[in-house]
Amino acid sequence: MKRLFLTVVAVLSMTMTFAENENMNATNATSAYNMSVNYNKLADCLGLSLDQVEAVEDIHSSFCAEMMNAGNANVDERKAMVESALKKDLKHMRYVLSEDQYHKYLMLLNTTFNNRGLEW
Fold this sequence. Notes:
Helix content is about 85%, strand content about 0%. The protein is an all-alpha fold. The radius of gyration is 21 Å and the shape is elongated.
């Protein structure tokens, strides 16, 4: 009886451990789509004017919301949602930023996507 009880406890412990790891992996995958940034550092890096800072904050806030929606969507829909969000973000940023600023922004965005393991 003692062995049966210990076996049941061991099996339940292992099951709970695997379930916890699965939930952590899902949370980590969703957090990779959080694209929020420190706008002051972004402004310094890109050399933005005050007008550009406001426009970039608005554009990037919209992009962040769309990326979080993509992170919470089904895996099948996720890639299309990310591509749509990126196209919209880049189109608007292209309008607001100068050529040099836009290239720096692309480099930062590409690095962020690579570091988080996201495809685009």
